[in-house]
C-alpha cells in the first residue's frame, strides 16, 4: 500500500459514498466535473450502492483506477448502513491500491445546512434520530470551507441527557432529522432549525476534498465505522420497558 501522497494543488480525483441514512449518497469528481447521485438506502443500500458508484464514475469521466482516494461516511449512523459503506470502501480501496478518507456523518449534516458558509459564526448543533428514543448529537464550528471543528464531540444521548447538553450549550442553529422524527418528545427549540437534506452527495464530496487537502487519508486496513451504541439489539423485555417509559 503506497503512503498517502499528502495535499496536492491539483484537483483530487475522488469518490465519496455514504449509507448512514435512508438515502444512499454517492459523488465523484473527475475530468467531466462533479457528479452526484442518490439511491434507496436502508435495507436496499447494499444493492443500490455499487450501481450508483459505477454511474457517477462514468459520468465524471473516471475509471476506478483513476481515483486518488475513496471517502466514506464513517458514522455515527445506522449500524448496518455504516458497515455497508465501510466494507464497500475498503473492498474498492484494497483492489485499487488507494487510500480512504473516513468522514464524520454528523459534520455532513452541518455541511449540508444553510450555514455552511458562515465562517466564524455560531455553533451548529447536529441532532440525528438514533431510534430507541435516543439521539446522535454534536456541535460544530466552521473553521474553513468544508472544515468543521467539533466543540461538542459526537455522542449518543438519551432525551434527558440531550436536554441537559442543550441547557449547557444552547443551540442557536440546529441541523438534523431528530426534531422531526421525535415530534412532541423533542426536548428543546432552537433559533433556527434545518431538518431536511439539501444536497447530501455534494456536501459529502466537499468534506472529502477538504479532508484530502488536510492529508487525512488512511490505509484501508485502518478504516472502522464509528459506533456510538455498544448494543444494537434489545431483548423483548428491554423493548417493553423502553415503550413503557415513553
From TrEMBL:
GO cellular component terms, semicolon-separated: cytosol
Keywords on record: Transferase
Q: Which GO terms describe its molecular function?
A: transferase activity
Please, one GO biological process term?
Answer: tRNA threonylcarbamoyladenosine modification
Q: Which part of the chain is the Gcp-like domain?
A: 46-144
Question: Which Pfam families does the UniProt record give?
Answer: TsaD
UniProt cross-references to InterPro entries, sorted A to Z: ATPase_NBD, Gcp-like_dom, T6A_TsaB
Q: What is the protein name stated in its UniProt record?
A: tRNA (Adenosine(37)-N6)-threonylcarbamoyltransferase complex dimerization subunit type 1 TsaB
Which species is this UniProt entry from? Answer: Rubrivivax albus
**Gene from which this protein is expressed:** tsaB
